[in-house]
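Continued from yesterday's entry.
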Amino acid sequence: MTAEAPEIYDLRGLNCPLPVLRSRKRLAALPSGTILVVETTDPLASLDLPAMCMEDGHQLVSVERTDGGHRFTIVKG
């Protein structure tokens, strides 16, 4: 879970609101500064996860489109 080897959290196949709820719970269990890569297939996650990061004080480093979904790189605040 370091910058060299971030944790990949596979939430593909889950629909709203589960990607946000599970990401929030996973981030709460991690120390500040940890990088978490979240993979989703829910189209609403492209709106919901950035909003969650803003609300909870995490840094959204990048959002990438993948085959069938998105990959979010988040640094826990």
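--- second protein ---
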Amino acid sequence: MNRTSIPILSVTSAIGILLSSPATADTVKIVGLGASTCAHFNQEIGENPALQRDYFAWAQGFMSGALIRAPQGVDEGLDLTPPSFPLQEQVDFLRAFCAKNQDQDYMDAARALYRRLRGPKT
């Protein structure tokens, strides 16, 4: 994706992005389905498996936002839907993460998926 095609951010938004750091990232309030705990996700998809699609759509938006927010030179060219890790496998990854980590949030599962898609740091 060409970064020049992204609309210009407002000055306030740009300053917020520039001032963000891992230390302040923990104080950001995440909203939407991703704010749910993995235990809640597990319960909901157990009752209605079709909800996995809604959670996954949230995760895709979350990862897309992380990719757009990444500084120049970081994660450029990252494919969030690589042929080597198709969407169904990503859904399975998120479900397995939450099954093993019920005390974490679904957002943590999405972050783990993003790191997996990034691959090992060289």
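The domain at 30-118 is CATH 1.10.890 (10k-s Protein, Hypothetical Protein A; Chain A). The chain has a mean pLDDT of 82. Will compare against the first tomorrow.
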